[in-house]
Structure formats: C-alpha cells, structure tokens
Known about the structure:
CATH superfamily of the largest domain: 2-enoyl-CoA Hydratase, Chain A, domain 1
Oligomer: single chain
Shape: globular
Number of domains: 2
CATH topology of the largest domain: 2-enoyl-CoA Hydratase, Chain A, domain 1
Strand content: 5-15%
Largest sheet: 6 strands, mixed
CATH architecture of the largest domain: Alpha-Beta Complex
Number of strands: 9
Radius of gyration: 20 Å
Number of helices: 11
Amino acid sequence: MSDYPHCETLALDQQGPVLHLTLNRPEARNAMSLAMVAELTAVFHQIEDDTSVRAVVIRGAGGHFCAGGDIRDMASARGQTVAEGEQDPFYRLNRAFGEMIEQVNQSSKVVIAVLEGAVMGGGFGLACVSDVAIAGETARFALPETSLGVIPAQIAPFVVERIGLTQTRRIALLGLRFNGDEACQLGVVHQVGKNGQEVDGLLAEALERVRHCAPHATSATKALLHRVGHEPMGSLLDSAAHQFAAAIRSDEGAEGTLAFMQKRPPRWANQDSSDPS
C-alpha cells in the first residue's frame, strides 16, 4: 500500500485496492488550482506501478465535484510580465492541466468519477476521462468557456472522444448547462443516482465488478482500447493477438480458466492486492 505524501488540496484514503481521492477545496467548489493539478499529477504518477491500487474513485468535497479553473491562478498569471523568449504564464497554466488530464486518461487503473454539484470546465474534462462516471441528482454540467471569452483548450479533445464531435460542438459553442439525465443521454456519464444512497450503491456495484476482473488483464484492455483509431487496424489486431496469447499463458489466464471450470471466484476477487498469485 502506498505511503501518500501530505496534500493541501486532496484528501486520500486507500481502502484495500481502492484509492478514494477527494478534490478538497470546498470553499472554492473544488476549483482546479495549480496546486491541485500538481498534486493530482504526483498521486497518479505514484500509483501507476503500485499493484496495491486497482481503482481510483474521484469525487469532490462539500457537494461539488469541480467548478473549473481557479480564478486566482488566472489573475496571478495575468499580472506576470512575459520576457522575450519566455512562455506565456497562461500557456503554462493551461498546459499543466492538459498534461494532468492526459495522465489520468492513460492511467492503468480503473478511474471512477462520482459527480455531484458543479461539474464544469476542468471538472467536466476530468469526468470525460473517467472509465466509469456516476452522477448524482444535484450534478450540473457545463462547458462555459465560450461564454467567458475563452476556449476549452485542453478539455475539448477529450470531450470529443467521449461524446463525439456533433454534440461537443453544440455544448461548447453554446456554453450549455445540463443535468445528470442529459449527461447520461449524451454519454458523458454512464449512470445517474436519484439520491446519495443510490449513488453509493452504484459505486459499490462498480467496485465489486472491478474486484472480479483480473488486474493485469484490465489494465492491458484499457491500454488496447486507447489505441483504437490511432493506428492501422491490421497492425493493432496483430499486436492484440500477441497480447491475447501472452494473457492466456499468464498466471492470470491459468487462474481464470481454472476458476471458471471449478465454478469458484478467481483468487484476485478475494484479495486486497492486484497480485493474482
């Protein structure tokens, strides 16, 4: 189990193979500050090769997921002078968020987002890179950037990947706001809970399914899915066939087959670690 460093903007609680990560700036509706971006980057870097973590649950403190970028960071960047040859501080701020959200997107862990209250801007982008997204009855989604005179620069590509170009055009160009039910219809989220108890139940069901799926096979499958559309299909399928053969011959493959034949849960379903041995 990881020994996590102290975080100023996040609350971390590892329960068995699940890291519960809470965006913890409730006074600012968990707005995404540079400090929060840095801490998220550090945590996801730390857990990437940690076999004790199989899933990460991201949610927000105080009834909101994330209300977007931190206005104070933007004001600070505006006040900085840019010497010739130096990068614009707004570029650095924006790009740091993009690097973090790409890292979360590519994480080998199963990332589950529990969405309540404000899910806007950067929070919307973070929701769009989750593997499983569960919305509560209070969730309100928005890409408000164009109404503020800016653009969803680091977010838009991930929204397009999530729900397609046509719907992203409508949402981003009109700066629309919508609830969890419409978010589910669009494909931003997968499930909507009618109340807190139902949301917790949906989360528990998802984590139970994570527990029953082989850890290495799950991470390899996620990586394979990310390759679709980015390389020729023939070479992708050829590579996948090699991976399949290796998986069949692996300890996980042998244990999964044996457990199926013996009509019992595989060993990894009863372990707190992702080590299937």
